[in-house]
Write a structure and sequence with these properties.
It is built from three helices and five strands. It has about 190 residues and is an alpha+beta fold. The protein has one domain. The chain has a five-stranded antiparallel β-sheet. Helix 2 runs antiparallel to helix 3.
């Protein structure tokens, strides 16, 4: 009976036991402090990237979009977003019945499908709700890959960003217009 009392009264190794109980929790906290800011940073980097690409194509017609894609990738550094789907679109605003609609004039894509020329996107943004207005739109989508595969909410998480941007260049008719590679000027009506 005496050895049992000594064992029960012993305090040797209590710190090791406490550490063994707390270590998994501490590791989860460590992984969370790495993973969650990384996911947030990737999301914000994609937003900066899509804004940068929209700004670059809004300045006027471009013959190649490789530099635009490269600028978008540079903005997301240090996060690797080379697999991101990117769609750049030149849009025209038209009267359809009693409503204004935005239609695709030209579109290019990388790792995604370009929008169909002439297809209706929907209502134009508030700043472009004038018949004949032109603007550009940049979209990106990216499936996030976590470093630690222990947070189920982050597995397969897809970030999608879309930005409509006013034009700043001058088109062929004196109005601002962007024509993307392989595309044509927006039709008059």
């Amino acid at each position: 009976m005496r050895p049992m009392r000594l064992f029960a009264a012993g305090e040797d190794g209590i710190a090791a036991l406490e550490f063994a109980l707390l270590a998994p929790v501490l590791l989860l906290i460590l992984m969370g402090t790495i993973e969650l800011p990384r996911a947030y940073g990737t999301s914000q980097g994609l937003l900066r990237s899509v804004r940068t690409m929209a700004d670059l194509i809004s300045r006027g017609s471009v013959s190649t979009v490789d530099d635009v894609y490269a600028a978008g990738a540079a903005v997301t550094f240090p996060y690797n977003t080379t697999g991101a789907g990117i769609v750049l679109t030149a849009v025209g605003v038209y009267q359809q019945g009693n409503t204004l609609v935005a239609k695709v004039c030209s579109s290019v894509a990388r790792n995604a499908t370009a929008r169909t020329v002439g297809s209706v996107i929907g209502a134009p943004p508030e700043s472009e709700q004038v018949t004949g207005a032109r603007y550009v739109m940049a979209e990106t989508s990216f499936t996030y890959t976590p470093i630690f595969n222990i947070f189920p909410a982050l597995n397969g998480l897809t970030f999608a960003r879309q930005v409509a941007w006013p034009l700043r260049g001058t088109g062929s008719a004196g109005a601002a217009e962007t024509i993307l590679p392989g595309g044509r000027s927006c039709p008059a009506a």
